[in-house]
Amino acid sequence: MRALLYREFSGPITVAEVAEPAAEPGTAVVRVAASGICRSDWHAWSGHDDSVPLPQVPGHEFAGTVAAAGPGVDPGWIGRRVTAPFVNGCGRCDWCRAGQAQVCPFQTQPGFTHRGSHAELVAVRAADTNLVALPDEVSDRAAAALGCRFATAFRALTAHAQLAAGQWVVVYGAGGVGLSAVMIGAALGAQVAVVDRSAAALQLAGRLGAAAVVPAGADATAMVLDVTGGGAHVSVDAVGSPDTARDAVFSLRRRGRHVQVGLFADQLPVLPMDRVIAWELSVFGSHGMAAADYPALLELVRSRTLRPDALLGEPVDLADAAPLIVNGTPAGITVLDPNR
């Protein structure tokens, strides 16, 4: 099958012929219709997670049709349109049995632990735990945007931050995760402020429902405090840098909640723990969302309350996707079609 492949960290990414994944016990093989190009692909390719085996096929956000089911997998999945979280729980441990597969200690991740979805076929392990059936109203391209960015933002704002209608949420970074958070926050009835250095990204955030947009810089935190009337109830760092993490915490009002979703490439942040203690702030990490929690998110998409397709540009083929992993994508979400 055709797939994107890299043989060394930070090395060339090429379109190559690779072996098709096998329908091993507990595993389903999905024929990929759409696969999202995500910043996490760049982190894996860059070697920030040195547990990634080489050579590797990137890609962890996808939608498609189940082509084969291995022993122990419900054969009723075959022929169904599906997606899956980017974190695939084992289905057996205490965390998976409690519905918290996103922190499974035995998790697998396409594009990280095994070959990913920037290919014609991808394997989903512990398939009965991790496959998510797609409603007819949710397109393949929209579903491919959900697996990492929308799912991560949705769980960050609902399960962790408990964002309520009328509250302020400030989002640092208007990339895929950040813009997903903007749309979800607006869909939940919250007021959203966005901080980013890109004027184009801020304009897009405004069109997607942000009530306030703030250029990144030395005055950004002060501007957020002003526009939110003393600080946001919730802050999200969707970038993953020491500066954005710190500024996001300083943007909160007393008893506010910070959620960290952006991954750090090199330097870890030093958070103002004196402020966290004195103001009784809460700090959360958020790492995707289990398949069991998808129905609420899919219902928002099915009902058109949430429209991930608004973030989608034109699909690209495998060859055009390779430089986008290395150099970054335009504002919004870019999805590849491996069949083009």
UniProtKB/TrEMBL annotation:
GO molecular function: oxidoreductase activity; zinc ion binding
Lineage top rank: taxon: Bacteria
One Pfam family recorded for the sequence: ADH_N
Organism annotation: Nakamurella aerolata
Keywords from the named record: Metal-binding, Oxidoreductase, Zinc
Co-factor requirement: Zn(2+)
Residues covered by the Alcohol dehydrogenase-like C-terminal domain: 176-301
SUPFAM superfamilies hit by this protein: GroES-like, NAD(P)-binding Rossmann-fold domains
Domain Alcohol dehydrogenase-like N-terminal: 25-136
Protein name listed in UniProt: Alcohol dehydrogenase catalytic domain-containing protein
Family: Belongs to the zinc-containing alcohol dehydrogenase family.
